[in-house]
Design a protein that fits this description.
- This protein is mainly alpha-helical.
- The protein has one domain.
- The chain has seven helices and no strands.
- It has helices spanning 9-35, 42-46, 53-60, 63-86, 90-107, 129-142, 151-161.
- Helix 1 (9-35) packs antiparallel against helix 4, helix 4 (63-86) crosses helix 5 (90-107) and helix 5 packs antiparallel against helix 6.
- The model has no long low-confidence stretch (mean pLDDT 86).
């Protein structure tokens, strides 16, 4: 059996749809945080129970650091989401998104005995939506098809015509 390196239009279209949908989700989350000045990561950080729980306590205990983390989180989500939606700097945006989502996951992993006091949308064990979305972004980062149908493709065409 030979490996077929060509990707079908359906596969390419599906990857582009995933890029757009995850990008939209991240962009909207960032915009929501930006237009709601009362939002803070303090509740999320207070729930940290694993390897970053000590770091979370330090961030919560320092108002300046908490403000910086909130701003970086908000603007990171906006920039990553915008890049993915527009297909602009797709690979760097997907890699940055993967790293950010993995940080979220590692601060609050759905492991046995690490129950959250905050109500959640579902019940998870090891795998949750954050981990799935991070892996989708990793797939987008390594897939040449993910840059199709976006500004990256237009820029590449324009530079090759010059």
């Amino acid at each position: 059996m030979t490996y077929q390196s060509e990707i079908t239009k359906w596969q390419s279209g599906t990857l582009v749809a995933l890029r757009f949908l995850v990008g939209w989700h991240l962009l909207y989350e960032g915009i929501y945080k930006l237009i709601h000045p009362e939002w803070s990561s303090i509740a999320f950080l207070a729930e940290a129970k694993w390897i970053f729980s000590g770091l979370a306590e330090k961030i919560i205990g320092n108002a300046g650091l908490l403000g910086t983390v909130d701003a970086l989180n908000t603007w990171g989500l906006i920039l990553i989401g915008t890049g993915l939606v527009l297909g602009l700097l797709t690979r760097p945006a997907a890699i940055a998104g993967t790293l950010l989502l993995m940080l979220y996951y590692l601060f609050n992993p759905p492991f046995i005995g690490m129950n959250s006091l905050v109500p959640m949308e579902g019940n998870y064990l090891v795998v949750n939506k954050t981990l799935i979305e991070a892996v989708v972004l990793l797939l987008i980062a390594v897939s040449p098809a993910a840059i199709r149908y976006g500004l990256d493709m237009l820029i590449k065409k324009k530079s090759s015509n010059s």
